[in-house]
Amino acid sequence: MATALEYTAEQLNYYRICYVVTDVLTEGLRIIFKQEWDNRYWRTWGEWKDQPNNGLDFCNGESLRNRSRNARLLITMKNGDTAEWDCTMLFYAILNSDCINGLNPTVRSHVNDLRKLRNEDFAHMPRGHLSEKDFQRVILKVKNAFLLLEFASYGPLRLQNLFYHTGLKITAFRY
User: Fold this and answer.
1) pLDDT in tens, 108-144
2) What top-level branch of life does the organism fall under (predicted)?
């Protein structure tokens, strides 16, 4: 009979941040991208509906330079289904694409803060451990960014009971 894995509190904190970054953050970025797209193109190319024609419109709206530089990302993005886009693709689309040029400086700043958080507190960590203090700091950053981006009803506030996995002893966030 297999025994349940025991994780340290620091490992669980890191796994929770993995969940926040890969699921919650990307969903928030999808919402931002679609809102920005719709605000710009609903009259010309139409609302973003996660259809292939949306992806082609996006790719066709990119400069040759961006198409060349981001060819690897655009292979997936041209399909138009934002559910298939990862953080890198979403950050590119929102912060650096030609299509979402002229982003509101406040939105740009908060999305860029989330990008930095993803890179510094998740993607480039030397080990899969995060102290309780650092975990709370990261969650607070995400909460604040979402609140400032008008996602008060989404994100970390709803995460309290969402982290459950067989064999894990702790199943809820503590605030």
Assistant:
1) 999 999 999 898 877 887 888 989 999 888 888 887 8
2) Eukaryota
